[in-house]
Design goal:
TIM Barrel; 356 residues; two-stranded antiparallel sheet; DNA polymerase, domain 1; 11 helices; alpha/beta
């Protein structure tokens, strides 16, 4: 395993195998996560023999930044290359009060969990080129470390809402969350992490049973099975009633408030009737609705409704007793929607060529 994938307990076991005291594990973790050092030879308080053993057995590969784009609203998108040449995206988002009620000094990173996506949501670029593979826990964690290093900014909020369906990479997701949360790791509070899912009801129930108090966001995007199924194929397997039942179970166990993500798409899901039904569903599970005007994706035919239509939809929700916010666009001018930059770069190069 990559060094960034290992927990403190696993490092302690490794040190015992090498005949070393377990406190050496704390030294390794301090170098990796506090000092952000990757070269084993630089870890000066470890014996030379241990450093060589670790160098031989535990790679500390960094994600390689291929491209970075900046938006007029200060959103920054990073395209990273993995060790096998695959590309993933991470996005650094400036504070926005409509995004999970965040404070004005909050910096949010949107982290990928897979290369591509198999779920085929019709508004999203992530799945246009199919699913390639799951990310390892190290590749998930390293997005945080590398974006902090590249941006020079302190990140204090994490959203697993980049490329891929986080719940479909469940084991690696949980391992990454534990490392990002742990005091010996990155040290981000669980309540400052949000997992976003397209609606994998069994995994929502699994996450409810986990002790970590991470937040949950549901990509809802349609208030009837007909509309949601048109936008999100996963709705055929887990229709709205089953999804809401899983959400009720999650809320009952966690005592947390959910967020419903709802991308407004012109003439698809922006009708007053959809708004009224959505308000009922949100009240049922005590969810806050986060309205997001559609981010145009090259290769997809949909568009966003105009601002009066957006405001009308928001007003219906609020008048029906649902808490709702309308998130003004972030990164629309840099194609910040998931997967767009990756596709643009891949299309710019012939098969087999080297990306620069």
């Amino acid at each position: 395993m990559d060094a960034l994938s290992l927990t403190k307990t696993e490092w302690e076991a490794r040190m015992q195998e090498l005949g070393q005291p377990t406190y050496r594990a704390g030294q390794v973790l301090d170098w990796l996560f506090r000092r952000r050092v990757r070269d084993w030879t630089d870890m000066s308080n470890l014996p030379a023999s241990i450093r060589q053993n670790l160098a031989d057995n535990f790679p500390t590969r960094r994600l390689e930044k291929v491209r970075e784009t900046g938006s007029k609203d200060t959103t920054r998108k990073f395209l990273f290359r993995l060790a096998d040449g695959q590309l993933i995206e991470s996005v650094l988002i400036p504070a926005s009060p409509a995004l999970y009620g965040e404070a004005s000094d909050r910096r949010t990173i949107c982290i990928s969990s897979q290369v591509g996506c198999a779920y085929g949501c019709k508004f999203c670029a992530s799945g246009l080129d199919g699913w390639k593979r799951n990310l390892t826990a190290a590749e998930i964690v390293d997005q945080f470390l590398q974006v902090e290093a590249e941006s020079g900014e302190k990140i204090n909020n994490i959203v697993f809402m980049g490329m891929g369906e986080p719940m479909a990479n469940y084991d690696n997701l949980l391992r990454a969350i534990s490392i990002l949360n742990a005091p010996w790791g990155v040290g981000i509070g669980a309540r400052h992490m949000t997992v976003s899912t397209s609606g994998l009801a069994p995994r929502i129930r699994d996450l409810a049973a986990q002790p970590l108090q991470v937040r949950l966001a549901i990509s809802f995007h349609g208030a009837t099975d007909e509309v949601r199924g048109r936008i999100m194929p996963v709705n055929k397997k887990y229709p709205i009633e089953e999804l809401l039942s899983a959400c009720e179970e999650y809320v009952g166990i966690k005592k947390q408030r959910l967020t419903f993500e709802y991308i407004l798409i012109r003439d698809i899901n922006d009708s007053p009737e959809q708004a009224r039904l959505l308000a009922q569903q949100a009240r049922r599970v005590n969810a806050k609705v986060n309205l997001i005007p559609y981010n145009t994706v090259e290769g997809l035919e949909w568009d966003r409704p105009d601002e009066p239509r957006q405001e009308e939809f928001l007003g219906i929700l609020r008048n029906a007793g649902a808490e709702a916010t309308l998130r003004r666009e972030k990164g629309h001018d840099i194609a910040a929607a998931c997967g767009q930059l990756r596709l643009q770069v891949e299309k710019s190069f012939a098969p087999g060529s080297v990306l620069n």
